Amino acid sequence: MSEAVRTTCPYCGVGCGVLASVDADGTTRVAGDPAHASNLGRLCVKGSALGDTVGPEGRLLHPVLRGQDGVAQRATWDEAIQRVADGFSRIVAEHGPDAVAFYVSGQLLTEDYYVVNKLAKGYLGTANIDTNSRLCMSSAVAGHKRAFGEDVVPGCYEDLEQAELVVLVGSNTAWCHPVLFQRVTAAREGRDGPRVVVIDPRFTATCEGADLHLPIRPGTDVRLFNGLLSFLFRHGVIDPDFIDAHTAGFDQALAAAEAESGDPAMVARQCGLQTADVVAFYRLFARHEKVVTLFSQGVNQSTSGTDKVNAIINCHLATARIGRPGMGPFSITGQPNAMGGREVGGLSNMLAAHLELGEPAHRDIVQAFWQSPHIAGTPGLKAVELFDAVGEGRIKALWIMATNPAVSLPDADKVRAALARCELVVCSDIVERTDTNAYAHVLLPALGWGEKDGTVTSSERRISRQRPFLPAPGEARADWRAVCEVAKRMGFERGFEFAHPHEIFVEHAQLTAFRNREPLADGVPAARRQLQLGPLAKLDRRAYDALAPVQWPVTEQGAGTPRLFADGRFSHADGRARFVTTASRAPAHAADREYPLVLNTGRIRDQWHTMTRTARSPRLNNHIGEPFVDMHPHDALRSGVREGSLARVVSRWGSMVARVRHGGGILAGTVFAPIHWSDQFASDARVGGVVNPAVDPVSGEPEFKHTPVRVEPF
Ligand code: SF4
């Protein structure tokens, strides 16, 4: 057996440390890394099955070019790089930089993310680069920026164990972030473990054993948390000294909350809850100083997702429950490197180092650092509108990396039509066949987990190394290398001379320190950005290879920072956090006679995204083997379907086929279907084709949790 390599799980945002080794017969063995602070040796069932997913079956092993006749043929890397560079250069020359775009992924390593953003925003001069992280946590990003002045998660996982009360909102933590849930559960086995409240329309595995479950009516979270703010004020639980010294906007936010949600009985009616349960939740929150409110996709994936995030943060600011052990609002990210992507400007409205693309002074900082020929002048298109622009012919070349938008985006049939008309579609992927790769003119073989070399950042701001322990199969290459080669062929000789991910990481770390803390040229006081990796810029190659997991901001001594804002100073230029006035509003599309049920979507325990890796593991497939739609028995009866039968789920945007289940715990009037299946694994089973494309007006995050549908016999 080979010596165990310390690396990081490539699935959810918990970012568990993994010890990986290879037997003499080629079998990959994995175990939780007891030295990694995120998981302390634990792994969930998906992480434990990683060894099943790394074989050569189905891998894309060499570049492929599709000719005008539609025939796909093996090509050399040289031919493929030239085709991409020529295509992008021609389209930029004929139609301008905004006619090209990139759609990337929270699966990329930070180093990959950094160079593709640099090429797009600094060299091509377009901000049309967005990421599938837009679909999962962009509302949290926008909420953090509004409240704190920067996209930061204030706390750390230990807070969940040190809390007296953990509130889980819109999160089936037991299935979607299992190791975190295990940590909470283990803490509850002690005498002083936290009490747990779950706020979720469904009764999920997370609710089993909770002290209180609020089966909230979908879309009404803002009202519930505005009601909490009002309750805290009326019961004298707020902290006026903290509010005066460290925040702004409290009076306006409180007035709006009072006007809308001052009466718990009314809140209960609007949220579809029992008044006694609402009051019980409010009392628990009021009585416990140490409260962590952990939230996930049930909050973010909504047309009022950003307001939901801020309604939660408002309650923590009002009580000063932030920046200290065992307390704070906590956004838990879906993907392994959603956070790292955010750090290097992975979203179309962001620049690297948490700088804003819409701020001229911030653009100056980045361009001065990069010494680049261009800097994108305006924020680019967000995921849904980016694919709309492809469909309308405004974007003519699109490079997709490590994601499968033909399955995962809302209104996915429209996405397919857009890809079909796009002049040049480039896909970088580890597997040959996906629903999206079917539209590629150029396929570039990428490295997978076990082969990649770089860093990821978890939900608690912890940077960990992904280290290779397997050889690259066939001609697969790192994504950063492919991007650099294309950049150089497009004439950008300077700026992309990287020979190793270490050099990219060092440049990224340098940029986080570049003119951070200095007053800006126009006299505006600089925001104090917390994303601070400056000391890591001194790492040599050996130290980078040996880098131990560390939470940014990193101190001069190289130590991490578990909690932010302990000094009450936030990242807005005046150092104050902001209360954001929020008002509840209904989801974009209401159920009606034709579409009387509301479709909610999400993950199951043992599959990941569009199953291109996890479906290779028999033990993971054993959990739930086919697409399903979970319904209340009364709704099934009214719809003319029964448990175990196949049914068609139909919305105004499309339809899918799934097997009816009465999994229990689902509100009448709602149905649930998982996001994972595609045409590759089951016929007519893409839930993305059913989901409506409405987005949050601030974050651009789609409303995956609320699409009116009907269910009919198949
Ligand atoms: Fe991987 Fe997440 Fe499971 Fe940890 S909890 S092993 S990061 S899937």
From TrEMBL:
A single GO BP annotation from the record?
A: nitrate assimilation
- Identify the keywords attached in UniProt to this record, alphabetized: 4Fe-4S, Iron, Iron-sulfur, Metal-binding, Molybdenum, Nitrate assimilation, Oxidoreductase
Report if keyword Transmembrane is assigned. no
Keyword Cytoplasm: yes or no? no
> What GO MF annotations does this protein's record show?
4 iron, 4 sulfur cluster binding; metal ion binding; molybdopterin cofactor binding; oxidoreductase activity
Outline the extent of the 4Fe-4S Mo/W bis-MGD-type domain.
Answer: 2-58
Necessary cofactors: [4Fe-4S] cluster; Mo-bis(molybdopterin guanine dinucleotide)
- Span-the-membrane segments of this chain are none
* GO annotations of cellular component type: membrane; oxidoreductase complex
Q: Which family does it belong to?
A: Belongs to the prokaryotic molybdopterin-containing oxidoreductase family. NasA/NapA/NarB subfamily.
User: What protein does this entry describe?
Assistant: Assimilatory nitrate reductase catalytic subunit
- Species annotation: Dyella marensis
Q: What is the lineage of its organism?
A: Bacteria, Pseudomonadati, Pseudomonadota, Gammaproteobacteria, Lysobacterales
